[in-house]
């Protein structure tokens, strides 16, 4: 794994100085990165926001696709994913839909996580943020 990371540093960072690799111990370099990430994950905000996000996903997953045919009635992420109800027979199974799965999940997760991280009004002010 360390070889991969050093190759990325060399390729994308423009660091073609092999002496740097010899002078910096791998353990020291990666221990610093690991301790920084570990410290960030122990922040209270990360724990609280992650809990809120998981709760929002659990509560909202049932509404990822509403089953409504009208574009106006659909949620923002359904419109972006071009959800189309292709079989709405009134049988026990319900309905069948086709959608762009990438846009559906991206929009759904955006609408759930951004209010937790940025506040509820953020999506009101920037409704197309997922496209940026």
Provide an overview of this structure.
This protein is mainly α. The protein contains 7 helices and 2 strands; from the N terminus they run αααααββαα. The chain has helices at 2-13, 18-23, 26-41, 44-60, 76-80, 101-118, 121-125, and strands at residues 84-91, 94-98. It has a two-stranded antiparallel sheet. Strand 1 (84-91) and strand 2 (94-98) form a beta hairpin. Helix 4 packs across helix 6. The radius of gyration is 22 Å and the shape is elongated. 7% of the residues are buried. The mean pLDDT is 78.
Shape: elongated
Secondary structure category: mainly alpha
| End-to-end gap | 32 Å
- Outline the low-pLDDT stretches: none
The number of helices is: 7
Output the helix-strand order. Answer: HHHHHEEHH
CA-based gyration radius: 22 Å
Instruction: Please tell me the overall pLDDT.
Output: 78
The strand count comes to 2
Approximate strand percentage: 5-15%
């Amino acid at each position: 794994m360390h070889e991969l990371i050093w190759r990325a540093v060399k390729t994308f960072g423009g660091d073609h100085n092999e002496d740097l690799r010899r002078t910096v111990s791998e353990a020291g370099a990666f221990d610093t990165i690991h301790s920084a990430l570990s410290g960030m994950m122990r922040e209270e905000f990360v724990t609280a926001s992650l809990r809120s996000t998981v709760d929002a996903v659990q509560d909202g997953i049932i509404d990822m696709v509403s089953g409504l045919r009208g574009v106006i009635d659909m949620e923002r992420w359904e419109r972006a994913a071009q959800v189309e109800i292709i079989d709405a027979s009134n049988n026990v199974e319900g309905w069948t839909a086709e959608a762009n799965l990438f846009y559906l999940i991206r929009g759904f997760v955006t609408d759930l996580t951004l209010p937790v991280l940025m506040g509820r009004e953020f999506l009101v002010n920037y409704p197309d943020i997922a496209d940026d």
